[in-house]
Amino acid sequence: MSPSFVHRPRALLLAGLALIPLLLAACGTYPGSSLVTARLALDWTPNTNHTGIYVAQQKGWYGDEDIKLDLTPYSSSVSPEQLVATGQADFGISFTEGVTSARAAGLQIVSIAAVIQSNTGALVTLKSSGLDTVGKLAGKRYAGFGAPYEQPLISQVIGCGGAQETSFRDVTTDQDPIVALKSGQFDFAWIYMGWEGVEAQRQGVDLNTFMVKDNCVPDYYSPVIITSEKTLKEKPDLMRHFLAATAKGYAYAMSNPDDAAKLLIAGAPKGTFDDEGLVTASQQYLSPRYAEGAKCWGQQTLEKWTNYPKFMFEHQAILDASGNPITSAPNYAAAFTNDYLPKC
Question: What is the pTM of this model?
Answer without folding.
Answer: 0.90
